[in-house]
Amino acid sequence: MVTSLTYADVFRPCEKKNAVLYDVALIIGGSLLIGLSAQIAVKLPFSAVPVTCQTLAVLIAGALLGRIRGSLCVLTYLAEGAAGLPVFALGRGGLAALAGPSGGYLIGFAAAAYITGFLAEKGWDRRFATTILAMLLGNAAIYGFGLFWLVILTGMSGMILTAGLYPFVVGDILKIIIAAAVLPGGWKLLAAAGFKSEKMK
Question: How far apart are CA 52 and CA 167, in angstroms?
Fold first, then answer.
């Protein structure tokens, strides 16, 4: 049976000890990248949820690392923030920040990384159209968790789309287009360099 590799799988060492260290380094490095992307943030006057670059970082991490490493990367990031490190948007950290208005979106990141990682393992990141679809599904998971938590937290069900969805749609579409432009092109470069994108299972 032929299965698709992720970018991380292509460069993964064959020796077990080195492979484990490689995976750990990717998970920790990915969590730090998400934390850095969270600091590129704009606070909106009409919403408690800021606009950040986290969504792009999470979706890319899922696609590059696969469903397991991608979701572990996000869970590591959440653990860092819950422990008090200032890795959430606007330099915040701690359980209070995790339980705040952005908390649902943060939890949704793990689901998004898993979904995009799973679809990348199925080869969806090889083509522009399927990459966009994978990213849209991942983004839908983020919005699903985020909006649900906002309703629970604030009870503003009538205004929830204005506060938690509409301000972010255009930016997220641009992020998805960037990812869809980069990922398939990267596979073409790897193929030209002689790297295989599939393996027998």
Answer: 11
Per residue of the chain (201 residues), give pLDDT as tens.
Answer: 446 789 999 999 999 999 999 999 999 999 999 999 999 988 887 777 888 999 999 999 999 999 999 999 999 999 999 999 999 998 999 999 999 989 999 999 999 999 999 999 999 999 999 999 999 999 999 999 999 999 998 877 778 888 888 889 999 999 999 999 999 999 999 988 888 767 644
Name the helix (H) or strand (E) containing 185: helix 166-192
DSSP annotation of 11: T
Length of the chain, in residues: 201
Tokens of 73: 């990367």
The two tokens of residue 19 are 């492979």
State residue 86 phi and psi, 5-degree precision. -80, 60
Q: What one-character-per-residue DSSP string does 27-75 give?
A: HHHHHHHHHHHHTSEE--TT-SS-EESHHHHHHHHHHHH-HHHHHHHHH
C-beta of residue 47 within 8 angstroms of C-beta of residue 163: yes
Phi-psi region for residue 43, left (φ > 0), alpha (ψ -120 to 50) or beta?
beta
The pTM of the full predicted model, rounded to 2 decimals, is: 0.92
The answer to whether 107 and 78 are in contact (CB under 8 A) is yes
Cα distance between residue 94 and residue 37, in whole Å: 18
The region, left, alpha or beta by phi > 0 then psi within -120 to 50, assigned to residue 194 is: left
